[in-house]
Amino acid sequence: MKNFKKVSAPVRVDISACWPDCDPYRQDYGGFLLNAAIKQRVYTRRLNGDFVCSVREVPTNSGLGVSAAIRTTFMIASNPAILDKFSLTDKIFKVYTFENQVLHHRAGLQDQAAALEGGVNLWEFRKDNKVNKYPIERKRTKHLEKRLVIIYTGQKHESVDMHNIVFSPKNYKKIIPAIKQMSKVAKLMAGQIDNQVAMTDLINESRELHRKPFSGVVTNTMKVLASRLKGGYLAWKATGAGGGGSMLFYTPDTKALIKFFNKIRRQKNLPKESKIFPVKFDYKGLIVK
């Protein structure tokens, strides 16, 4: 371990809505969330005594958990003993504390969980500060993987801004029922992950639940894209905290949707940073070389 040169971790896409992993809700009630690590990775390298971080494979502020993933790699690179000395729960909370309390970048717990473990998992983030992972079998996740496409809108978002609005004192109590339903939907998804009809309904329900606390989770650009691509997908939702970043589409024909997007991108003057890519799941999690 002392001679490592590179630490890498995958970013993630949330399949269910993201608020159940966020405080203060998580501290008060605990929550469930279904997410998947994807093949795009971030890196921390040790070069001549310096730590060099790279996010070249995925846009920052994209709603794919990049900030927590890169901080996970940096924390392990700067203190590799963490890998063997601490439990998964402890490692998740160490990155969470670094990101939220030291750097004041408000976010939930799902990003570092996916970065560390990889795979497609139903996560339980308990109010007693324990984290339980319920992996979904790969033979079942293939059905989902073949139907997912991510569109990065080209609109950067700030997760901290969205969290501050959603969990503001005047808003929090009103949104508790919606977040409780998000947890229920996440558990239903885990059981129906290879059922196209059920997943269509559940992803669409997640989108509407996600935006209930704050309608700005879904931006005008997202609405326009969803409208222009209509007929090419079954369901869609904003990823992460929303308010920009990326959209997740559920479609029986990913190649056709990608072709459709590339056509309207040329015609409709979408942001030059916008792009689309099929989802490939990552099952390796954190890698130290």
TrEMBL record:
InterPro entries: GHMP_Kinase-Related, GHMP_kinase_C_sf, Ribosomal_Su5_D2-typ_SF. One of its GO terms (molecular function) is fucokinase activity. Coiled coil: none annotated. Signal peptide: none annotated. The keyword Metal-binding does not apply. GO terms for biological process: GDP-L-fucose salvage. Keywords: Kinase, Transferase. PANTHER family: L-FUCOSE KINASE. This is GHMP kinase C-terminal domain-containing protein.
